[in-house]
Amino acid sequence: MTRRITSAVNSLVTNLSRRNALLWLGGSGVTTALMVATQNEVSAKDKQELKLVNPPTLYNPTQNGYSHIAITPARARTVYISGQFGSDLQGNLVSADFEKQLIQAFKNLRYALAAVGAQPQDVAKTTVLIVDYNQNKLIPLGREIGNFWGNKPPANTLIPVPRLALDGMLFEIDAYAVIPEKRG
Fold it and tell me: N or C: which terminus of the chain carries fewer CB neighbours within 10 A?
């Protein structure tokens, strides 16, 4: 049995790019298989830009401000942006108000992207942390996501948390972006 599994894994690694094989081995189930298959199909069509994929076998998440899958171009530089929050240039919170912190965090994310030559459409994945989360906080979040990405939001995970790094900090967003070697 172990020999059969090893043989199957070796065959998979041989037949797929290293990144696709790692996605397959690191994930599980139909979604990962679909992502690997979709990545091959989309990458063959256009290797110059980030692709956001929402397969018909999953619900359309764009109405909730995210995409299911982000596929990076073959020749791109990856940028990891630490959690941005509602701070001014001195690192002080701009307000005790959730919505004001959220708006400033998105401004700070835009500044961070610009500093490395990236644009909002280069963002593949974000993680959002919200203190004392409730669904009412989705209204301003959805608005800011729409302002930032329009109807093509990146993959996203929202995590409710009891607190963040600083007292009074209510919102944080980090991002993974890919800057294509050549823009189309």
Answer: N
